[in-house]
Amino acid sequence: MGSVNADLVVGVDRRPAPGETVLGSDLATHPGGKGANQAVAAARLGGRVGIVGRVGDDGHGELLRAALAADGVDLAHLTTTEGAPSGVALITLGPDGDNSIIVSPGANARLGPDDIAAAADMIAGASVVSFQLEVPLPAVEAAARAAAGAGGRVVLNLSPPAPVPDGLLALCDPLVVNEHEAAYLLGGDGGPEEMAAALVRSGPRSVVVTLGADGVVVADGEGTASIPSPKADAVDTTGAGDAFTAALCLRLARGDSLRDAARYATRVGAAAVRRRGAQSSYPTADELPAG
């Protein structure tokens, strides 16, 4: 359950300073949005996936719907919002593969508890339900409560970071954050293992702190563990975190332990940075390097 956006990507040699103009590459348009990215990545790995979200009644909406359908994602609860634009992410891509992103939510901002009620059967039938914060918090809370009430596993990717109620954090198994998001929640920095353990003490049932090329740290009632990432020459990091979270959810749905699921997910995330784009970079299970 989450955002569905069109990614508008421009490559630059360097990012402009305030008041400065720089030239970039040709504009490329790709399907994206954290919700859609995670749905596509999990489906491409062999998962049975549905999405709850909203797109606009514009050309981007048609593109986004077609991209999800092409990977077999169930679109029964992807609603077209009349009179609203689809969400758009404005992405600048640097020469080293890193990115800066501004998101205009568009139709995503109209997602609400009524959408969750309409999708009750889909949510209740899911082993794992994944959430992010590119859609309104009331919709996330309603869907998380519905998933947990039906016995599903709630995975929250706290991106972009924002205050969330303690009751929502208590449902997370795991909460997925990067170092910046972890520091935001804790109100200060620390080592990854220290932050992961502190987050578990704050309420979530388990936590995964992602560290990019350095892998991840997982924490739960059994303690913490560091899991390295496979080496990868990064071409484009856009959507790699979504690929990781999708793979994590898929393996949890199939019964893996959190540590084993995270090991598999690091392989998927590393594979995703080797190609340009978000959804276009996601591997199938057969394309994953051995590991």
Overall mean confidence score, pLDDT: 94
Number-wise, the strands total 12
Question: Which CATH first-tier class would you pick?
Answer: Alpha Beta
> Structural class of the secondary structure composition?
alpha/beta
The domain count comes to 1
Report the biggest beta sheet as strand number plus sense, adding barrel if it closes.
Answer: 6 strands, mixed
Characterise the protein shown here.
With 291 residues, the chain is of the alpha/beta class. It has a single domain, classed as Ribokinase (UDP-N-acetylmuramoyl-L-alanine:D-glutamate ligase, 3-Layer(aba) Sandwich). The protein has helices spanning 34-44, 59-70, 113-118, 120-124, 137-149, 166-169, 179-186, 192-202, 240-253, 258-272, and strands spanning 5-11, 28-32, 50-56, 74-81, 87-93, 99-104, 128-131, 153-157, 172-178, 207-210, 216-220, 223-227. Strands 7-8-9-10-11-12 form a six-stranded mixed β-sheet, with helices on both faces. It has a four-stranded mixed β-sheet with strand order 2-1-5-6. The protein has a two-stranded parallel ribbon with strand order 3-4. Helix 1 (34-44) packs across helix 9 (240-253) and helix 9 (240-253) runs antiparallel to helix 10. The protein is globular, with a radius of gyration of 18 Å. The mean pLDDT is 94.
Protein traits:
single chain, six-stranded mixed sheet, 291 residues, 10 helices, four-stranded mixed sheet, alpha/beta, UDP-N-acetylmuramoyl-L-alanine:D-glutamate ligase
